[in-house]
Specification:
- This protein has 236 residues and is of the alpha/beta class.
- It is 36% helix and 16% strand.
- It contains seven helices and seven strands, in the order ααααβαβαββαβββ.
- A seven-stranded mixed sheet has the order 3-2-1-4-5-7-6, with helices on one face.
- Helix 4 crosses helix 5.
- It starts with 14 loop residues before the first helix and ends with a strand.
- It binds S-adenosylmethionine (SAM).
- The site of S-adenosylmethionine has 23 residues, from helix 5 and strand 2.
- S-adenosylmethionine binds next to helix 5 and strand 2.
Amino acid sequence: MPGSPATGRPFSGPPMAWAFALASAKAPADKTGHRNAEQEEKSKAARNRLRMRPILPSGMPVRFLIAISLALAASQASTLGQQPAPTPDIHFTPTRHAIADAMLQLAGVTAQDVVYDLGSGDGRIPIIAAQKYGARGVGIEIDPRLVTQSWGNANDAQVANRVRFLVGDLFTADLGEATVVTMYLSPSIMKRLTPTLRALKPGTRIVSHQFTMPGWPPDDRRQVDEAEILLWRVPK
Ligand SMILES: C[S@@+](CC[C@H](N)C(=O)[O-])C[C@H]1O[C@@H](n2cnc3c(N)ncnc32)[C@H](O)[C@@H]1O
């Protein structure tokens, strides 16, 4: 680390501040305690040389130092710009394919439907809706990594042109175009979602894997292996 020209102590400023430190040393006084004109001239010339000379850690090129400074600034800016990832209200546990298919059958999904899965995980329910029933599928998922995985799965299933996966919060998502809404969530999330689901357009079918809606009895329910699936129709 370079020393400060004024004090000789290590210079602790940021990297760019090292680059052009100003000399503050004065010419020494003569024996009488006064500086003569010649000494003053030499001292001035020395100060000017220091003013122009980059003071760097030994052997470190200026361009390298500037690159470090820019990289530090960029990383700081991107850290400041980042929002913390939202916390999922429930973690990812997939619905088995047989149960997912039974949910779509219980809703009577056809090629005319737009199927929204709330908390869509790896995208399997919208993908089956598109692949097997020719519907359009939309997944709303809070975890961006699962959304990326869903697009990969849709490509593999060759239905990427019939599905959409959105990083978003199921509590605030716009469900206006849905004709079928599916979900595998939790009792507390179902309770919070009930008013939103009741307000969907009349005739919308809602299917839940396992969890009921308090105060709204289902129109139909089926047992599929270990799971119960439930259906509601939004009244006309
Ligand atoms: C039990 S998994 C169900 C996954 C998929 N629907 C299925 O049945 O296979 C619940 C999913 O909801 C997602 N999730 C949790 N809270 C959410 C929120 N507020 N908005 C959107 N997705 C959420 C989780 O990341 C997880 O993928």
